[in-house]
Amino acid sequence: MTIAIEPVTDPHALAAALSGRMLIDGALVPAVSGRTYAVINPATGQTIATAPFGEAADVEAAVASAAAAQKAWAKLPARRRGALVAECGRLLAGRVEELGRLVALETGKALRTESRGEASVLADVFTFFGGLGSELKGETIPFDPAMLTVTLREPIGVIGAIIPWNAPMMLMAMKIAPALVAGNAVVVKAAEEAPLAVLRVAQVMNTVLPKGVFNLITGFGPECGAPLVAAPAVRKITFTGSVETGRAVYRAAADKLIPVTLELGGKSPMIVMADADLDRAVAGAVAGMRFTRQGQSCTASSRIFVHDSIHDAFVDRLAAAVDRMVMGDPLDERTDIGAIVSKSQHERVCGYIEAGRAAGAGVRACSALPDDPALAGGLFVRPHVFTGLGNDSRLAREEIFGPVCCVIRFRDYEEAIAAANDSDYGLAATLWTRDLKTALDAAHRLEAGFVQVNQNLVVQPSLSYGGIKQSGLGKEASLEAMLEHFTHKKTVILNMT
């Protein structure tokens, strides 16, 4: 099936055009079985498209296509591969509005505050990694003067990438851009809730890349994701998602003895010292909690430890700031906060809110539900700021993945560091202070893969990103990650005698 490649800014029309298709061997195709499932607009509850219900036969076709294309792709000079990936970035940069509107429609993320920005970062990731083709270097080793000893960086082969729904385009790009530049072919399994924008990205990129180098399949974990991990020709898995699913992926990969990269989630602490710039720290909490993404972020600063002397003022200012945010139609430029992605996730978040209330915690429910009748069936949740809960409460220990945070008092710096590290997770952490000595000490002692002081940026290309403990294995977003996770190192010895 052929779909116009010209930019389409009406997301409903584009969703309908992409309906029922995935991308295998350069073509938009239905599932072998013909089965589909509904793609729902979470802001209205209405079906906007269908997606193929991918199963083992579809996985087999996609992996075969990737395996057939990979060897020729790997033989291209690395800088040439990089130039093609960078050209994909250039094309995608011209489609920020199209892609931003489409991902807003299917995920419920507000266009102005989230989705347009994600589309911009998507393009930037391909441009960044496209420029790193010449960095796929080996080494010379002084082993023996009579022998020339070198190492080579070679691609792994076919990469299986399983991506989530909360930032599907950006997180896909972080996986496939370095994999492609390194000479691998990829098969992406899209999140079932958000298959449309990533499919459009795949379609656009396939106008540049050789057929079969980038395939995208849709479906559910047991029927589509599990066969992808198990496919004999898949030589590496990179996965972003829940800890539970990550463990299952890890076990399956272990049976094949193939490498994995796992980015699994977090319960990220934010420590606000007594000397912090209060206004700046509050703004950092609003950004860090990813309220504009409905809190649906693995790096969300959902445990906020605030010094006793400023705790009440901090909570008042945080609640007031979030209260000013507008919840509504994700495609409306006035909207700050959109909808929760799915009914099951909506029920999960609401369950945590009820648990917090039942525990007797103090709570501030912020912003206001939209009053537009067209959004009456939408999956909206007001942001909630809980106080009075300990670091041992469910809300402080379990990843909620919604607009819910706990503000916890502390009196002593050592107490705050210990509480911040008292978690199964270790993805991200932030500290807010004017004291350089405290900042440096905390940077060393906080148990997280990504530590920031007086700021709360999201993942960026060129900054190594990944967690420790149950937040996962491996790194993404950097040159080092490309070399470590998408190439093998081969040692070659030439005897000169």
Automatic annotation (TrEMBL):
InterPro entries in UniProt: Ald_DH/histidinol_DH, Ald_DH_C, Ald_DH_CS_CYS, Ald_DH_CS_GLU, Ald_DH_N, Aldehyde_DH_dom
Family: Belongs to the aldehyde dehydrogenase family.
Keyword Oxidoreductase: yes
Domain Aldehyde dehydrogenase: start-end pairs: 33-492
The protein's name in its UniProt record: NAD/NADP-dependent betaine aldehyde dehydrogenase
Keywords: Oxidation, Oxidoreductase
SUPFAM superfamilies with a match to the protein in the record: ALDH-like
Organism, as annotated: Rhodoplanes serenus
Active-site residues from the entry: 263
Molecular function GO terms recorded: oxidoreductase activity, acting on the aldehyde or oxo group of donors, NAD or NADP as acceptor
